[in-house]
Amino acid sequence: MNMPIRNGADHKRSFIASRQEAQRVERYARLIRAGLLKTREQKRREREKKRERSFYMMWSTDDAEDKNMRRITDHIPAPKRNLPSHAESYNPPPEFLFNEREMRIWKKQEETPWKRKLHYVPQKYSSLRQVPAYPKFIKERFTRCMDLYLCPRARKMRLTIEPEDLLPKLPSPKDLQPFPTVQSMVFNGHTDMVRCISIDPLGQYLLSGSDDMTIKIWEISTGRCLRTIPVGGIVRSIEWNPNKALSLVAVVADRKLLIINPGVGDHLIVSKTDSILSTPPVQASIVSDKVKAVVQWDDATPEEWENGIRLVLNHFKEIKQVTWHGRGDYAATVMPDGANRSVLIHQMSTRRSQLPFAKSKGLVQSVLFHPIRPFLFVATQKNIRIYDLVKQELFKKLMSYAKWISSMAIHPGGDNLIVGTYDRKMLWFDLDLSTKPYKTLRLHSTAVRSVAFHKRYPLFASGSDDRALIVSHGMVYNDLLQNPLVVPLKLLKEHEDCSDFGIFGVTFHPTEPWVFSCGADKTIRLFT
After folding, report:
1. Which residue of 6, 93, 196, 375 shows the fewest CB atoms closer than 10 Å?
2. Domains in the chain, ordered, with CATH?
């Protein structure tokens, strides 16, 4: 009977893989992958390959099976020489031969030969056998050889980009409603060009000024003319006082700034305004002679009082624009020909004027008050300067890179500004982002004369001499990291052409998404 010598159990290491063997196998596998550990068959093939003699073409690769050269892995062929043109012919056409002027210019460029269009002078021979040897042949061949081995060659990787990918992703105009789309009403009554319009803060009445030396007050809901006031001069700018507790209108007529009570709206507000303006305030300080030479405050005559005129401010130069401060007590006027006295600030409660600037920084075109902060925007021909009225210093200077600024409008939030120029551009400035334009819009074919922001809706509009009123979407976000969204929405072209002039003024309704425009065709149009 056969019996085992040992009846003990197998050891654990007899059926568990050895760690040393696994490390050794892993090392061999790594060497095989790297090509450092070869089998006996591979070593035998390498020995036989070394014994064989290899032959190849030393200077050419025509017979080589490889597409690439043996010494140059990525060969770039040299550019070929340009083919000869008609001017290099031995019998070129007459238009290719140099005249005296062209020959004189060619000789002057001897010290700068790279500026020459041709490096030779075209010559004409009657037959080919009369053509002499080319004297610059050896030099040109030497230059060609120098270019071949000294000039580095490189491949230019061309990007294949779809044209659609270059266009910005803008939302559909249908998703940005409401905005004006159709003409709803035409206000007829003026006998000459309508240069400016303004709407009262409640949005009930419309004020217009024309070259027929009158201003008209219209009721927006019916289109009826309520009142016509003669002002005795061409009306270049008008603006309704933004203070709802006062019934005041500022009108620019030649060299006069007229403060008018239109006499429409709430009778209590109208009578309160008259009582305030009828009693002149006590002058606590003496007005300087410098200010007196620029502007003089006069009370209205009895005839002017009947027409609603309450105060007359006589300036020493022609006024171009007037604008109100947000609280309605201050007004600023612009006289482009006034040099360092171009801008004047008037206070209605004290009947005093002041000159904010001592030096002229350019031909002033327009001024605006900041809606929230004590800033004054002054636009010259090419730049916009922002002044701090409290500290009395320059706060910021905006570079427009335009030839001539025509108008500007500030966003109700106060951080964005649009500027219209006579060179057909509209510039959007983000005051928190940069002093350069955030976006340049080239939507018009002629000069942009007026721009405007809506006070409630994210809309802005521009009017031009091409009779086009363009309404655009301009969303300003509270997040400072997100840039404003600007999308052109609608082109409204209802005005008629008149002496190469189009739209002079653009303004929005204070509460509704409506826009008004006035132009050289003597009409005011409402788009809703």
Report:
1. 6
2. 83-130 (no CATH), 173-279+288-527 (2.130.10.10)
